[in-house]
């Protein structure tokens, strides 16, 4: 059998879009979900043991309706294998940290049933200009390794981009933020027009909706997956804050104004569903004291505000796995999501330990679409 061809387009070769590939929506059926195992002591407190329990709970919830792969560094393989149920597949896949949404592949599908992926450039959310850790050499190899495991084509994109920076509706529309994709610490040589063209070329989309900013104090420079996402064609969920004294309120109003004035690639107006913002949430003294302090990583200090959001959920085949972050708002957010996904079971997972590391359930997962 001949090995799979790895496609790495350059200026004189075809792009995924010209070959008929496109990124499907997250709410389309999946074959699997990919995750990574947390262990960095400067990101995850107390040797990542509390975070590992939270990651395991997320993996178990998703595994109720789709295969889950958890990539693990060799020195944590036995520990992860013991902590995770037998039906969750543990594979050796070295990483610098555990944010599979951003370091993993963006999967593409073809009408003829083929699967492929985009291999974006990764610089740890800003490189040496605001990046969250150094080095990120293992993270950069994850997409190549998964392409080899699955035997699928890998399209190398000439731009820095993380998976959490975009959402698509599977019908030609992409939503993102100016704060992230136009940040000079990502692609200083690209303007908005050039960025949109690359998104069309590599994701098979037709229209980009630009929101101004992401959530307040989001250390990813404003990933859209913490603020807004598609829940169906023509419908989005938006994190919402009513407190005018909170900086997040202005961000929400800006986003709402853009969304209400926008139409998708099919010409439909967008229906916006508001999800309450949890908190505000802050890092406690005992939570910060359990972390290693390294000059090469982002500091996490007592009193720092965290960018908590119920929009940071994962849409599985038969479930929506959402973070539980605030007893005041958890049940309200869960009820709203159940209304948006009446045919799926909404599963809440205590997720503060994930948020302490800088993200949440959507950030630690990456769907592999069914073909």
From TrEMBL:
<dbReference type="GO" id="GO:0047632">
    <property type="term" value="F:agmatine deiminase activity"/>
</dbReference>
<protein>
    <recommendedName>
        <fullName>Putative agmatine deiminase</fullName>
        <ecNumber>3.5.3.12</ecNumber>
    </recommendedName>
</protein>
<comment type="similarity">
    <text>Belongs to the agmatine deiminase family.</text>
</comment>
<dbReference type="GO" id="GO:0009446">
    <property type="term" value="P:putrescine biosynthetic process"/>
</dbReference>
<dbReference type="InterPro" id="IPR017754">
    <property type="entry name" value="Agmatine_deiminase"/>
</dbReference>
<keyword id="KW-0378">Hydrolase</keyword>
<dbReference type="GO" id="GO:0004668">
    <property type="term" value="F:protein-arginine deiminase activity"/>
</dbReference>
<dbReference type="InterPro" id="IPR007466">
    <property type="entry name" value="Peptidyl-Arg-deiminase_porph"/>
</dbReference>
<feature type="active site" description="Amidino-cysteine intermediate">
    <location>
        <position position="363"/>
    </location>
</feature>
<dbReference type="Pfam" id="PF04371">
    <property type="entry name" value="PAD_porph"/>
</dbReference>
